[in-house]
Amino acid sequence: MAILDNDLFRDFFLGFVRLHILFHAGHEPVCGVDLMAEMDRHGYRIGAGTLYPLLHRLERAGLLRCEVRVVAGRQRKYYRSTPAGAAVLAEARIRLRELVGEVVEDQGPPIGGMAAQKEDGR
Ligand SMILES: [Zn+2]
User: Fold this and answer.
1) How far is the CA of 11 from the centre of ligand 1 (A)?
2) How far is the CA of 48 from the centre of ligand 1 (A)?
3) pLDDT computed for residue 11 by the predictor
4) Which residue from 17, 19, 50, 68 puts its CA 20 to 30 A from 41's CA?
């Protein structure tokens, strides 16, 4: 599945990918290769050219902290969530719960629209 290749879908789903990253980096230090495999498992085919700039942005924003480790003789960057990253994830969790209630469970009040128009007799 190449949903990240489509510009419109990309806007939506990169937000999901960011949340996945914050979630996993909150549990354990994660490197780009781990994250690409994990995103693949979730059905997001995300390449290094998309993932690394995204990680750097989250790091610059103070949501991730990077640490270099040597694994099998190679330097590898591992990312962990910061307290600011955890706070963003906590806020996102509240909003996700709300969104799931509406979009997945289809529970939510009407916001007006057609109902309001009917009352006007239009
Ligand atoms: Zn995941």
Assistant:
1) 19
2) 17
3) 82
4) 68
